[in-house]
Give the backbone structure.
Amino acid sequence: MRRRVVVPVAALAALLLGASAAEAATLTVGGGKDCYRAGDALLLGGSGYTPGGLVNVTLEGRQLGTLTADAAGNISSPLQVGNLRGVSQRSVVATDATNPALTATSQFLGSSLLVKVRPQSGAAGRRLRLNASGFTTGERLYAHVKRKGYLRNVFIGKLKGPCHTLKVRKRVLTRATPNGVYTVQFDTKRRYSKKTKVWYRFRVTVT
């Protein structure tokens, strides 16, 4: 004897609505960049959310911002990328505050803006291991060694890949560098300028 499973109409409707709602929301990431870094704007576009409702946006579990859907349930707004670690694909999620079943995910390639220097101490003039990423404003990386009355511009190497990365051994300070405290600034400009907006810098003491 076959047993019949009876599902109440109201419950069945709720299940169907829940399934369609979960599939209704969409999310896309635009902005025309192959790789994003801290400070860049993600141009988010989405649909299928509660009309006039709030939509929470998270990046890898971290709150990125809150958008308001228009009368048709669409969202469209730039949100700035916060600090990132390493170079990898990132997941951004938009979830309806009224109905959390309305959620969608999109991905983008993101990178930290960073130069790792090894070793961090030792004699001036030695070759350093440099690991750079996120310098998406140019094709070449430079180091500017600076203190009052002293400035030296050093070509580090050509950046590669969508996130403009570079691994190289390079001599940044010469053996003849005078004793003192120096600022070393990495950027994609051949000459040092106070107006350069994208850079990574640190201080080093030569004794």
